[in-house]
Recover the amino acids of this structure.
């Protein structure tokens, strides 16, 4: 069984109009929401073995606020600019590249931190099953600082394919407050 957590970055700031999109930091609202979503993941017993994070500033800041909520030991984090605005095909390719570690252990829980519209499309592509209300909410909108938790009956990430996942949780800041 494999678990994928797709975490969309928290709300970003538009206070500096000349700043490139890649360098935009979090807004005050985002700085509040990120730790809340991290705490919610912890309450569900979700702890990633590996984190793949977009190199964009708002994604990095979101992860920095989520990590302390998950527990004292941080899992390995790979910052990858290819996750910045990635489309579902690229995200799936990234998952398929996850291999066992040097001890031969496959990460059973992977978190990806990134952006829309790719994350919403990717979650909908993967989730072939799940509670109807959660799937309906996911298909309406994937807000900032939200997390889709999708499980797969698979042993390797290369076996993950569209429609084979089950959406177990769809966490949004609005539903947590």
């Amino acid at each position: 069984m494999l678990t994928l957590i797709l975490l969309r970055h928290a709300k970003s700031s538009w206070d500096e109009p000349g700043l490139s999109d890649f360098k935009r930091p979090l807004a005050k609202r985002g700085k509040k929401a990120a730790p809340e979503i991290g705490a919610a993941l912890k309450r569900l017993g979700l702890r990633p073995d590996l984190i793949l994070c977009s190199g964009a500033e708002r994604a990095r800041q979101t992860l920095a606020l989520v990590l302390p909520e998950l527990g004292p030991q941080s899992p390995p984090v790979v910052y990858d600019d290819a996750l910045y605005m990635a489309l579902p095909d690229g995200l799936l390719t990234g998952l398929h590249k996850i291999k066992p570690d040097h001890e031969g252990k496959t990460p059973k829980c992977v978190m990806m931190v990134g952006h829309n519209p790719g994350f919403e499309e990717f979650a909908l592509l993967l989730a072939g099953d799940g509670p109807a209300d959660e799937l309906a909410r996911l298909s309406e909108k994937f807000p900032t600082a939200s997390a889709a938790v999708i499980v797969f009956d698979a042993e390797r990430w290369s076996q993950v394919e569209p429609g084979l996942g089950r959406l177990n949780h769809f966490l949004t800041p609005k539903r947590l407050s």
Remarks:
- The mean pLDDT is 93.
